[in-house]
């Protein structure tokens, strides 16, 4: 199939960058060698000896490291380019070996995260500038996401992959990554700037600089209000305008008129003579408009939420508790649905498909009810909660065998002071006795009561969602199981069927380095309320 002009231009950009990548990597190796040599005199003798091994290995393994680097870079870029392509029919998965993540694995991720942050900090402006060009080449005028396949994460993972070519210990490989961090950031800053200059010379017009007049309603709203403040809907209702001073006299219960679908609020308001009711309807309508314009809400979920717009305005006439955004089941249902969809971001994920099918059937039932009341939405919330509980149960049942093995391993650990070997092959710390301590991040001490990290760890429960930095990328994972001694915790990836067990010490290390946090369900309704309050305040001040 022939590529469009935009796609051809983007493909040319990708190929050009891949052709220039080997030179950048050669420059990186030279910079790392210079940095290490310059720092040798100030190093303690044991560390100087170990680092000298690294310096000697770099020129010998230069070609091999370059091959590893380019293989990783091409593979990552190809994955990025094919992310939106149709996926072939999925073949039955082979049984997977359950990975066990220990402190050493986390030490690697710590270095990766430091490298990524160094690149983003040093080349912040250049990355933003390049994003405007890549968005233009793929036709994303709103810059809804970053289309640059050569992001900081991509380069960092490729450099770490190149370190695997070193025939040295894991500690030496981590040390190479640590010394490569700053030079890589500086090289990429120059590279990103040169790329944008080339694209500008080719006539690519950055997306952010375009001035376009699009049809009304063709674009989604701007960035949502990022705040934990959630206004009181009762008080907000009193400030809402109610332009309909006279009612039509048509009862909302009249058989001649039953509002259905996503109605205009004025049509619903004509069914009441009470100004306070019309103000409540106005507020509810604006809340939905703000939620539907929230860019954080997935598009397929936005469509479902829009189906509740009309029923919610009818509900506002009968149920004043609708203005209690923290407790009313309608708002809790919306928040829960959005959160559950965000935790499974892959649109093709069967679990996500099942979730949205359930939500659609539930919302269709809610919208078809002629009389709206809070009981309907309590039923909807309970149905959604039951589905999510069953989903967790199904996933845990699929790893029952691994859970049994983990518990036996944990029991063995409790009876034996020495740490067991990991199941997926990573080295344990007791196998790194010859590696200088300076090469590895400090392992956190055994948590003591009252320690914030220990309290966080002890507070984790099955079903909790976390955002964690794992194997060079940020992802969302659900806690599936904790061992009886809480030495092992089993997590499931929200975007795939991958599972991995993490030792408690590794989790504490991740927590101490800011690589993991518990995700709390945010209030989409609360953010919408803050946005509406801002709009009303601005209108009143005008």
**Quaternary structure type:** single chain
Uncertain residue ranges: 1-6, 86-95, 210-227, 245-262, 419-449
Across the major sheet, the strand order is 1-5-4-3-2-6
Number of helix segments? 19
Q: Rg, please? A: 28 Å
Shape field: globular
The average pLDDT score comes to 81
Number of self-contained structural domains: 3
Helical percentage: 55-70%
Could you explain the architecture of this structure?
The protein is of the alpha+beta class and 542 residues long. Helices cover 56% and strands 6% of the residues. The protein folds into three domains: 5-83 and 94-209, no CATH class; 233-395 and 524-541, no CATH class; 398-518, SH3 type barrels (Roll). The protein contains 19 helices and six strands. It has a six-stranded mixed beta sheet, sandwiched between helices. The protein is globular, with a radius of gyration of 28 Å. The model is unreliable at 1-6, 86-95, 210-227, 245-262 and 419-449 (pLDDT under 50).
């Amino acid at each position: 199939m022939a590529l469009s002009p935009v796609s051809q231009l983007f493909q040319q950009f990708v190929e050009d960058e891949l052709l220039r990548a080997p030179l950048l990597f050669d420059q990186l190796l030279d910079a790392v060698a210079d940095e290490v040599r310059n720092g040798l005199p100030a190093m303690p003798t044991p560390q100087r000896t170990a680092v000298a091994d690294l310096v000697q290995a770099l020129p010998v393994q230069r070609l091999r490291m370059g091959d590893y680097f380019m293989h990783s870079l091409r593979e990552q870029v190809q994955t990025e380019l094919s992310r939106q392509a149709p996926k072939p029919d999925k073949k039955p998965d082979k049984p997977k070996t359950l990975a066990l993540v220990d402190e050493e694995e986390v030490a690697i991720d710590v270095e990766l995260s430091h490298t990524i942050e160094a690149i983003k900090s040093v080349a912040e402006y250049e990355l933003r500038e390049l994003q405007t060009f890549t968005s233009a080449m793929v036709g994303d005028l709103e810059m809804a996401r970053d289309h640059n396949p050569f992001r900081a994460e991509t380069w960092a993972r490729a450099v770490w992959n190149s370190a695997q070519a070193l025939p040295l210990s894991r500690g030496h490989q981590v040390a190479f990554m640590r010394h490569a961090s700053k030079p890589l950031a500086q090289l990429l800053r120059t590279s990103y700037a040169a790329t944008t200059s080339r694209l500008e010379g080719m006539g690519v017009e950055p997306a952010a600089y375009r001035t376009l007049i699009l049809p009304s309603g063709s674009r989604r709203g701007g960035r949502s209000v990022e705040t934990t403040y959630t206004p009181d809907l009762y008080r907000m209702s009193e400030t809402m305008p109610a332009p309909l001073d006279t009612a039509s006299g048509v009862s909302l219960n009249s058989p001649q008129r039953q509002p259905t679908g996503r109605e205009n609020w004025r049509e619903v308001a004509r069914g009441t003579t009470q100004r306070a009711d019309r103000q409540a309807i106005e507020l509810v309508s604006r809340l939905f408009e703000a939620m539907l314009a929230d860019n954080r809400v997935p598009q397929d979920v936005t469509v479902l939420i829009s189906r509740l717009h009309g029923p919610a305005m009818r509900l506002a006439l009968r149920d004043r508790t609708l203005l209690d955004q923290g407790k009313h089941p309608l708002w809790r249902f919306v928040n829960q649905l959005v959160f559950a969809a965000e935790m499974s971001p892959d649109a093709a994920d069967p679990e996500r498909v099942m979730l949205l099918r359930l939500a659609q059937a539930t919302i269709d039932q809610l919208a078809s009810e002629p009389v709206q009341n809070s009981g309907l939405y309590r039923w909807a919330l309970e149905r959604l909660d039951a589905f999510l509980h069953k989903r967790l149960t199904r996933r845990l049942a699929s790893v029952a065998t691994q859970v049994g093995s983990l518990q036996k391993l944990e029991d063995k650990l409790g009876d034996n002071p020495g740490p067991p070997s990991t199941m997926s092959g990573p080295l344990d710390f007791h196998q790194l006795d010859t590696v200088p301590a300076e090469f590895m991040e400090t392992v956190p001490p055994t948590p003591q009561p009252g320690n914030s990290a220990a309290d966080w760890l002890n507070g984790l429960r099955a079903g909790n969602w976390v955002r964690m930095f794992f194997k060079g990328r940020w992802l969302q994972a659900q806690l599936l199981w904790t061992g009886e001694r809480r030495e092992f915790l089993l997590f499931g990836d929200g975007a795939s069927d991958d599972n991995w067990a993490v030792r408690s010490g590794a989790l504490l290390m991740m927590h101490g380095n800011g690589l993991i946090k518990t995700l709390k369900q945010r209030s989409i309704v609360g953010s919408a309320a803050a946005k509406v309050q801002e709009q009303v305040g601005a209108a009143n001040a005008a």
